[in-house]
Write a sequence for this structure.
Protein backbone atom coordinates (compact mmCIF):
# COMPACT_ATOMS: atom_id res chain seq x y z
CA UNK A 1 0.00 0.00 0.00
CA UNK A 2 1.25 3.48 -0.89
CA UNK A 3 1.29 4.74 2.72
CA UNK A 4 3.76 1.95 3.59
CA UNK A 5 6.23 2.75 0.78
CA UNK A 6 9.38 4.82 0.48
CA UNK A 7 10.62 6.55 -2.67
CA UNK A 8 10.98 5.71 -5.48
CA UNK A 9 7.98 3.35 -5.28
CA UNK A 10 5.96 5.85 -3.26
CA UNK A 11 6.86 8.70 -5.61
CA UNK A 12 5.70 6.71 -8.63
CA UNK A 13 2.33 5.78 -7.14
CA UNK A 14 1.75 9.23 -5.66
CA UNK A 15 2.21 10.75 -9.12
CA UNK A 16 -0.68 8.65 -10.42
CA UNK A 17 -3.11 9.53 -7.68
CA UNK A 18 -2.17 13.22 -7.53
CA UNK A 19 -4.08 13.60 -10.79
CA UNK A 20 -7.44 13.38 -9.07
CA UNK A 21 -6.59 15.58 -6.11
CA UNK A 22 -5.50 18.85 -7.67
CA UNK A 23 -6.81 22.02 -5.99
CA UNK A 24 -8.86 22.67 -9.12
CA UNK A 25 -10.53 19.25 -8.98
CA UNK A 26 -11.25 19.53 -5.26
CA UNK A 27 -12.48 23.13 -5.52
CA UNK A 28 -14.90 22.06 -8.22
CA UNK A 29 -16.62 19.77 -5.72
CA UNK A 30 -17.72 22.53 -3.34
CA UNK A 31 -21.13 23.07 -4.90
CA UNK A 32 -21.85 19.34 -4.93
CA UNK A 33 -20.67 18.91 -1.33
CA UNK A 34 -22.91 21.80 -0.31
CA UNK A 35 -25.85 20.05 -1.98
CA UNK A 36 -25.06 16.81 -0.15
CA UNK A 37 -24.89 18.58 3.22
CA UNK A 38 -28.19 20.35 2.74
CA UNK A 39 -29.82 17.19 1.42
CA UNK A 40 -28.77 15.32 4.57
CA UNK A 41 -30.24 18.08 6.71
CA UNK A 42 -33.40 18.12 4.56
CA UNK A 43 -33.84 14.42 5.35
CA UNK A 44 -34.03 15.35 9.04
CA UNK A 45 -36.64 18.09 8.58
CA UNK A 46 -39.37 17.67 11.16
CA UNK A 47 -37.34 15.24 13.27
CA UNK A 48 -36.64 16.16 16.88
CA UNK A 49 -33.64 13.85 17.32
CA UNK A 50 -31.03 12.01 15.30
CA UNK A 51 -27.76 10.10 15.45
CA UNK A 52 -25.22 12.65 14.25
CA UNK A 53 -22.80 9.94 13.14
CA UNK A 54 -25.03 7.62 11.14
CA UNK A 55 -27.31 10.33 9.71
CA UNK A 56 -24.90 13.23 9.05
CA UNK A 57 -21.19 12.64 9.69
CA UNK A 58 -20.97 9.24 8.00
CA UNK A 59 -23.14 9.73 4.88
CA UNK A 60 -21.32 12.93 3.84
CA UNK A 61 -17.85 11.49 3.08
CA UNK A 62 -19.36 8.26 1.79
CA UNK A 63 -21.36 10.16 -0.80
CA UNK A 64 -18.39 12.36 -1.71
CA UNK A 65 -16.06 9.39 -2.16
CA UNK A 66 -18.65 7.55 -4.23
CA UNK A 67 -18.93 10.64 -6.40
CA UNK A 68 -15.15 10.76 -6.84
CA UNK A 69 -14.86 7.11 -7.86
CA UNK A 70 -18.05 7.11 -9.87
CA UNK A 71 -19.72 4.40 -7.79
CA UNK A 72 -23.49 4.06 -8.28
CA UNK A 73 -25.67 5.55 -5.54
CA UNK A 74 -27.02 2.10 -4.67
CA UNK A 75 -23.50 0.97 -3.71
CA UNK A 76 -22.96 3.62 -1.02
CA UNK A 77 -24.27 1.54 1.86
CA UNK A 78 -22.15 -1.43 0.76
CA UNK A 79 -18.96 0.65 0.67
CA UNK A 80 -19.84 2.18 4.04
CA UNK A 81 -20.36 -1.24 5.65
CA UNK A 82 -17.14 -2.64 4.17
CA UNK A 83 -15.19 0.35 5.45
CA UNK A 84 -16.61 -0.18 8.94
CA UNK A 85 -15.64 -3.84 8.94
CA UNK A 86 -12.09 -3.08 7.81
CA UNK A 87 -11.35 -0.33 10.32
CA UNK A 88 -13.50 -1.60 13.18
CA UNK A 89 -12.32 -5.21 13.20
CA UNK A 90 -11.51 -4.95 16.92
CA UNK A 91 -14.94 -3.54 17.81
CA UNK A 92 -17.70 -6.10 18.50
CA UNK A 93 -20.36 -3.91 16.89
CA UNK A 94 -18.45 -3.50 13.63
CA UNK A 95 -16.95 -6.92 12.91
CA UNK A 96 -16.93 -10.44 14.23
CA UNK A 97 -13.20 -11.17 14.03
CA UNK A 98 -9.93 -10.34 12.23
CA UNK A 99 -11.00 -12.96 9.70
CA UNK A 100 -14.10 -10.88 8.99
CA UNK A 101 -11.83 -7.90 8.34
CA UNK A 102 -9.88 -9.87 5.75
CA UNK A 103 -13.12 -10.98 4.12
CA UNK A 104 -14.20 -7.33 3.89
CA UNK A 105 -10.84 -6.41 2.33
CA UNK A 106 -11.31 -9.17 -0.26
CA UNK A 107 -14.80 -7.87 -1.05
CA UNK A 108 -13.42 -4.35 -1.47
CA UNK A 109 -10.74 -5.64 -3.86
CA UNK A 110 -13.36 -7.47 -5.89
CA UNK A 111 -15.46 -4.31 -6.08
CA UNK A 112 -12.40 -2.33 -7.19
CA UNK A 113 -11.65 -4.88 -9.90
CA UNK A 114 -15.20 -4.75 -11.25
CA UNK A 115 -15.16 -0.95 -11.26
CA UNK A 116 -11.79 -0.86 -13.08
CA UNK A 117 -13.06 -3.29 -15.74
CA UNK A 118 -16.10 -1.08 -16.25
CA UNK A 119 -14.01 2.09 -16.66
CA UNK A 120 -11.63 0.45 -19.12
CA UNK A 121 -14.62 -0.35 -21.30
CA UNK A 122 -16.44 2.93 -20.70
CA UNK A 123 -14.16 5.73 -19.40
CA UNK A 124 -15.80 8.46 -17.36
CA UNK A 125 -14.86 11.75 -15.74
CA UNK A 126 -13.88 10.26 -12.38
CA UNK A 127 -10.75 9.43 -10.43
CA UNK A 128 -10.88 5.72 -11.29
CA UNK A 129 -10.63 6.49 -15.01
CA UNK A 130 -7.72 8.88 -14.32
CA UNK A 131 -5.87 6.29 -12.24
CA UNK A 132 -6.09 3.75 -15.03
CA UNK A 133 -4.44 6.03 -17.59
CA UNK A 134 -0.72 5.50 -18.42
CA UNK A 135 1.75 8.08 -17.14
CA UNK A 136 4.16 10.09 -19.30
CA UNK A 137 6.49 7.07 -19.53
CA UNK A 138 3.66 4.79 -20.61
CA UNK A 139 3.53 2.93 -17.28
CA UNK A 140 0.25 1.93 -15.66
CA UNK A 141 -0.79 0.93 -12.15
CA UNK A 142 -0.87 -2.83 -11.77
CA UNK A 143 -4.08 -4.50 -10.67
CA UNK A 144 -2.69 -4.96 -7.16
CA UNK A 145 -1.54 -1.33 -6.97
CA UNK A 146 -4.92 -0.08 -8.11
CA UNK A 147 -6.79 -2.29 -5.64
CA UNK A 148 -4.62 -1.12 -2.76
CA UNK A 149 -5.16 2.52 -3.62
CA UNK A 150 -8.90 2.01 -4.02
CA UNK A 151 -8.97 0.48 -0.53
CA UNK A 152 -6.94 3.39 0.86
CA UNK A 153 -9.13 5.99 -0.80
CA UNK A 154 -12.46 4.54 0.26
CA UNK A 155 -11.50 3.67 3.84
CA UNK A 156 -9.33 6.70 4.66
CA UNK A 157 -11.68 9.05 2.84
CA UNK A 158 -14.64 7.78 4.82
CA UNK A 159 -13.22 7.19 8.28
CA UNK A 160 -11.11 10.28 8.88
CA UNK A 161 -13.66 12.87 7.75
CA UNK A 162 -16.53 11.07 9.47
CA UNK A 163 -14.71 10.96 12.79
CA UNK A 164 -13.41 14.52 12.48
CA UNK A 165 -16.98 15.73 11.94
CA UNK A 166 -18.39 13.69 14.82
CA UNK A 167 -15.53 14.50 17.16
CA UNK A 168 -15.76 18.16 16.20
CA UNK A 169 -19.46 18.29 16.99
CA UNK A 170 -18.77 16.67 20.36
CA UNK A 171 -16.11 19.33 21.00
CA UNK A 172 -18.69 22.04 20.30
CA UNK A 173 -21.10 20.40 22.76
CA UNK A 174 -18.36 20.40 25.38
CA UNK A 175 -17.40 24.00 24.54
CA UNK A 176 -20.76 25.68 23.75
CA UNK A 177 -19.28 29.18 23.57
CA UNK A 178 -17.25 28.08 20.56
CA UNK A 179 -20.44 26.90 18.84
CA UNK A 180 -22.12 30.23 19.60
CA UNK A 181 -19.06 31.91 18.15
CA UNK A 182 -19.32 29.91 14.90
CA UNK A 183 -23.07 30.58 14.58
CA UNK A 184 -22.39 34.31 14.99
CA UNK A 185 -19.34 34.25 12.69
CA UNK A 186 -19.77 31.57 9.99
CA UNK A 187 -16.62 32.89 8.31
CA UNK A 188 -14.71 31.03 11.02
CA UNK A 189 -15.72 27.69 9.47
CA UNK A 190 -12.37 27.24 7.69
CA UNK A 191 -10.25 27.78 10.81
CA UNK A 192 -12.77 25.77 12.83
CA UNK A 193 -12.22 22.83 10.48
CA UNK A 194 -8.47 22.98 11.12
CA UNK A 195 -8.95 23.22 14.88
CA UNK A 196 -11.28 20.22 14.78
CA UNK A 197 -8.60 18.12 13.09
CA UNK A 198 -6.05 19.25 15.70
CA UNK A 199 -8.42 18.64 18.60
CA UNK A 200 -9.87 15.33 17.44
CA UNK A 201 -6.83 13.83 15.64
CA UNK A 202 -8.95 11.23 13.76
CA UNK A 203 -5.89 9.01 13.26
CA UNK A 204 -4.24 8.30 16.60
CA UNK A 205 -0.78 7.48 15.33
CA UNK A 206 1.60 6.77 12.46
CA UNK A 207 4.60 4.47 12.51
CA UNK A 208 7.90 5.11 10.75
CA UNK A 209 11.21 3.27 10.47
CA UNK A 210 14.46 5.07 11.30
CA UNK A 211 16.84 4.96 8.33
CA UNK A 212 19.91 5.96 10.34
CA UNK A 213 21.09 6.17 13.94
CA UNK A 214 19.84 9.32 15.61
CA UNK A 215 18.81 10.83 18.92
CA UNK A 216 15.53 12.54 19.73
CA UNK A 217 14.97 14.37 23.03
CA UNK A 218 17.69 12.32 24.66
CA UNK A 219 16.34 9.00 23.35
CA UNK A 220 18.74 6.99 21.20
CA UNK A 221 17.12 5.55 18.08
CA UNK A 222 18.97 2.99 15.98
CA UNK A 223 18.63 2.49 12.25
CA UNK A 224 15.81 0.04 11.68
CA UNK A 225 13.95 0.89 14.89
CA UNK A 226 10.20 1.32 14.59
CA UNK A 227 9.12 4.73 15.83
CA UNK A 228 5.49 5.55 16.62
CA UNK A 229 4.36 9.17 16.48
CA UNK A 230 1.21 9.76 18.52
CA UNK A 231 -0.53 12.52 16.58
CA UNK A 232 -2.95 13.31 19.41
CA UNK A 233 -0.03 14.04 21.73
CA UNK A 234 1.75 16.16 19.12
CA UNK A 235 -1.43 18.17 18.55
CA UNK A 236 -1.61 19.04 22.27
CA UNK A 237 2.06 20.01 22.57
CA UNK A 238 2.32 23.05 24.85
CA UNK A 239 5.64 23.99 23.29
CA UNK A 240 3.97 24.38 19.90
CA UNK A 241 0.41 25.54 20.64
CA UNK A 242 -0.62 28.38 22.91
CA UNK A 243 -3.35 27.14 25.27
CA UNK A 244 -3.01 23.70 23.70
CA UNK A 245 -5.68 22.19 25.95
CA UNK A 246 -8.31 24.68 24.76
CA UNK A 247 -10.61 24.19 21.76
CA UNK A 248 -10.32 27.48 19.86
CA UNK A 249 -11.97 27.71 16.43
CA UNK A 250 -10.12 30.93 15.64
CA UNK A 251 -6.67 29.46 16.33
CA UNK A 252 -4.01 30.98 14.09
CA UNK A 253 -1.42 29.74 13.39
CA UNK A 254 -2.43 26.11 13.71
CA UNK A 255 0.50 23.87 12.70
CA UNK A 256 -1.25 20.63 13.64
CA UNK A 257 -0.12 17.26 12.33
CA UNK A 258 -3.59 15.75 12.02
CA UNK A 259 -2.99 15.00 8.34
CA UNK A 260 -0.09 12.62 9.07
CA UNK A 261 2.44 15.36 9.60
CA UNK A 262 4.44 16.56 6.61
CA UNK A 263 6.80 15.31 3.95
CA UNK A 264 6.02 12.88 1.13
CA UNK A 265 3.30 11.12 3.14
CA UNK A 266 1.32 14.30 3.82
CA UNK A 267 -2.35 13.39 3.49
CA UNK A 268 -3.40 13.35 -0.15
CA UNK A 269 -7.01 14.18 0.71
CA UNK A 270 -6.39 16.96 3.24
CA UNK A 271 -7.93 19.68 1.01
CA UNK A 272 -10.99 17.53 0.36
CA UNK A 273 -11.42 16.77 4.07
CA UNK A 274 -11.05 20.45 4.99
CA UNK A 275 -13.62 21.39 2.35
CA UNK A 276 -16.14 18.82 3.58
CA UNK A 277 -15.75 19.94 7.19
CA UNK A 278 -16.00 23.64 6.32
CA UNK A 279 -19.14 23.21 4.22
CA UNK A 280 -20.79 20.96 6.82
CA UNK A 281 -20.07 23.40 9.64
CA UNK A 282 -21.55 26.29 7.69
CA UNK A 283 -24.68 24.31 6.87
CA UNK A 284 -25.17 23.19 10.48
CA UNK A 285 -24.56 26.68 11.90
CA UNK A 286 -27.06 28.14 9.44
CA UNK A 287 -29.81 25.55 9.70
CA UNK A 288 -29.38 23.91 13.10
CA UNK A 289 -27.91 26.54 15.44
CA UNK A 290 -29.72 24.95 18.38
CA UNK A 291 -28.37 21.42 17.87
CA UNK A 292 -27.50 19.81 21.22
CA UNK A 293 -26.19 16.54 22.61
CA UNK A 294 -28.93 14.15 23.64
CA UNK A 295 -27.34 11.11 25.25
CA UNK A 296 -24.20 9.05 25.71
CA UNK A 297 -21.50 8.84 23.05
CA UNK A 298 -20.47 5.41 21.79
CA UNK A 299 -16.79 5.22 20.82
CA UNK A 300 -15.07 2.83 18.44
CA UNK A 301 -12.75 0.28 20.04
CA UNK A 302 -9.58 0.86 18.03
CA UNK A 303 -5.96 1.75 18.72
CA UNK A 304 -5.61 3.46 15.33
CA UNK A 305 -8.82 5.39 14.68
CA UNK A 306 -10.21 7.91 17.16
CA UNK A 307 -13.74 7.03 16.18
CA UNK A 308 -17.26 7.72 17.36
CA UNK A 309 -19.95 5.21 16.39
CA UNK A 310 -23.00 7.03 17.76
CA UNK A 311 -23.67 10.59 18.90
CA UNK A 312 -27.35 11.25 19.77
CA UNK A 313 -28.45 14.85 19.20
CA UNK A 314 -31.53 17.03 19.54
CA UNK A 315 -32.33 18.98 16.40
CA UNK A 316 -33.66 22.30 17.64
CA UNK A 317 -33.58 24.95 14.96
Amino acid sequence: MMINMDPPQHTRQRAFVNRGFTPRNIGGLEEHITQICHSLLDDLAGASAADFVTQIAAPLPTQVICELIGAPAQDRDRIFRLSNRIVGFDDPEMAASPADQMEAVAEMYAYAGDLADSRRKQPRDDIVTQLLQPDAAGEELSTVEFNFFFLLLTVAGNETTRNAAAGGMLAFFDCPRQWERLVAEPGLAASAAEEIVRWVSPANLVRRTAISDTELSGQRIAAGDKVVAFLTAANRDDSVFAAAQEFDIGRDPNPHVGYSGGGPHFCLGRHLAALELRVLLMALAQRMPGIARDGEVSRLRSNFVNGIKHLPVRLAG
Q: What stands out?
A: The CA atoms of residues 34 and 279 lie 6 Å apart.
